[in-house]
Amino acid sequence: MSATPELVIKDLHVGIEGKEILKGLNLEVKRGEIHALMGPNGSGKSTLANTLMGHPKYEVTSGEILFKGESLLEMEADERSRAGLFMAFQYPVAIPGLSVANFLRTALNARLAPSENDGSGAVPKKRGIAPKEFRALLKEKMALLKMDESFAGRYLNDGFSGGEKKRAEILQMAVLKPEIAIMDETDSGLDIDALRIVSDGVNALAGPGMGVLVITHYQRILNYIKPHKVHVMVDGRIQISGGPELALQLESRGYDWVRNGKEAVAR
Ligand SMILES: Nc1ncnc2c1ncn2[C@@H]1O[C@H](COP(=O)(O)OP(=O)(O)OP(=O)(O)O)[C@@H](O)[C@H]1O
Ligand SMILES: [Mg+2]
């Protein structure tokens, strides 16, 4: 395992339409670690996720984000995912006519391909995975996630239940093998069975190869996904960090004591 965390966020300030939302956020996530990010509504959790994926609306006014030692802010959104940053969306779009298998193969080939704009002006060589090899990979990953093979032939997210969308996302993670995965509100709208599927998937994948940042409101998912660290965001900053016990404290005590603690510190 590398000594330097793959994802390093330093004193990040982000604004939307002139309003500052993130106000000096520091966070480090490395491969092999599961981090949970919690915090009240509107504290800036999704703003962080959107900023990491390069959403154009979110303006970074100061601070930096390093991904594998390079400035993430200088990369386009597609370069970020090719580099190994993965984002699981709360509401993934349906693509009728595109099968899960074809989508995954295209996504994997994009990840395997060298950057089209490496500055050298050279035409990038094709390095895609062979169809046969891909089928074997897909079969292996679907078995790992206990998914029915027929799933691969369905159209992406078209008529998928909430739980199936989440499974498709976990499968995507298994195939693409990102170094860092960010999951925003992955648990919202999931029943207990689906929650377990998502959690088992994350636990199966988050080994030495992958680090995960799970953004969640509920301690519930953390009964299944065991985080190494829990962070609480209040008003655009991580106010307090701790171990899994912190999530339990939040469940029983709410967020007020974190806010009050902040005032006590500020004074
Ligand atoms: N695209 C946007 N346009 C305008 N305001 C936005 C936008 N995105 C976020 N905000 C504002 O930024 C603040 C933080 O929102 P954000 O979605 O990051 O919070 P959150 O911590 O994810 O909340 P929740 O727990 O409800 O998901 C809110 O005041 C929100 O209204
Ligand atoms: Mg949010």
UniProtKB/TrEMBL annotation:
Which regions form coiled coils?
none
- List, alphabetically, the Gene3D superfamilies matched: P-loop containing nucleotide triphosphate hydrolases (3.40.50.300)
The residues covered by the ABC transporter domain are: 7-260
Supply the InterPro entries for this chain: AAA+_ATPase, ABC_transporter-like_ATP-bd, ABC_transporter-like_CS, FeS-cluster_ATPase_SufC, P-loop_NTPase
Q: Which SMART domains match?
A: AAA (SM00382)
> Which molecular-function annotation in GO is an example for this chain?
ATP binding
List keywords of the entry alphabetically.
ATP-binding, Nucleotide-binding
Database matches in Pfam families:
ABC_tran
> Membrane spanning segments where?
none
Quote the PROSITE patterns the UniProt record gives.
Answer: ABC_TRANSPORTER_1 (PS00211), ABC_TRANSPORTER_2 (PS50893)
Q: Where is the signal peptide?
A: none
Task: Check the record and name the SUPFAM superfamilies matching this protein.
Answer: P-loop containing nucleoside triphosphate hydrolases
The family assignment reads: Belongs to the ABC transporter superfamily. Ycf16 family.
- Protein name per its UniProtKB record: Fe-S cluster assembly ATPase SufC
